[in-house]
Structure formats: C-alpha cells, structure tokens
Amino acid sequence: MTTLIDVSNKPALAVPQDQFDTADVPVPTLAAIRAGLDDARAVLAELIDTALFQAMLRDLYARPAAARPAHLRGALMDDFERVSCGVSLPANVVLYRDRRQPAVLFALRAHLPAWLQMPWQTVNIAFDHDYVPAQPVIEQPAPEQTARRAA
Predict the structure, then answer these.
(1) 12: pLDDT confidence band, cut at 50, 70 and 90?
(2) 23: in domain
(3) Looking at the domain assignment, is residue 7 inside a domain?
(4) Which of 3, 5, 62, 103 shows its CA 20 to 30 Å from the CA of 51?
(5) What's the domain range around 103?
(6) Which tens digits make up the pLDDT trace of 70-87?
(7) Total domains, the chain
C-alpha cells in the first residue's frame, strides 16, 4: 500500500506504507513544527551573517558571472579551501549546487531534526547568480515616521 503525502506546492510523494507508519508517531503541534523550522533557519542565518562568510560572498560576486561557478568549486565547495578561509559549516549544514536550477549559483541546506523529517527534510537558502550582497536593505519606516508624513 502507498500513502500520498502532500508537500506544500510540490507534487505529492508516494511513500510505501511500511516505511512510514504513522500509527505510533505523535503528531507535533504547529508551535513545535514552527520552532523546529525556525531553529534550522536560524542556524543558516547565523552562518551567513558571519563576517568571514560575507567576505567570501563579496569575493564571489565581485567576479564576472561566467567565472563564479569555477571559483565556487575551488573556494566554497572545497572543504579544505573553505576552512582555510575560516568558514566551517555546522554539522547539519551542507553547501551544494543544483544543476537543475540554473538561476541558483549555490545553496545552503540545514537538515531538520528526525521528528520533522517527514514530510519536511531540510531548510534551504539559495544564492542566485544575480544576487548583489552590497544592495541596501529596504527598511519599513517606523510608525511615528509614517504618522508624521501623513500629517
């Protein structure tokens, strides 16, 4: 017997019933699911926010677009080179390229805890070819600034 599991906007996955029997698995609360996903996302955000990772991004994106994949393979994808630059990945994080997604230069993947592995497995943050790290962040005005403008 096969069970269909809906994975958000992706096509349903066919999973053999004997590999995923939910009879003895407690259903986590929405708050627990959100916390598990937020923890994985925070791990990625902390890594990306480090000065050394930001320096690697600036170096990568300063290169011509055609040269970025080769530099990525030599500097970021190579564990020895990446660690020699001072950037080490947490134990549950993987840096990878997905050739099926041509707009994505590379991505970081954090594996979720075992109890969230079905239907989710990972949280991913992708870096596109045309990403510009020096681009200013658009901040929302504080409520008092909005009120002054309206007056």
Answers:
(1) very low
(2) no
(3) no
(4) 103
(5) 30-136
(6) 888 888 888 888 888 888
(7) 1
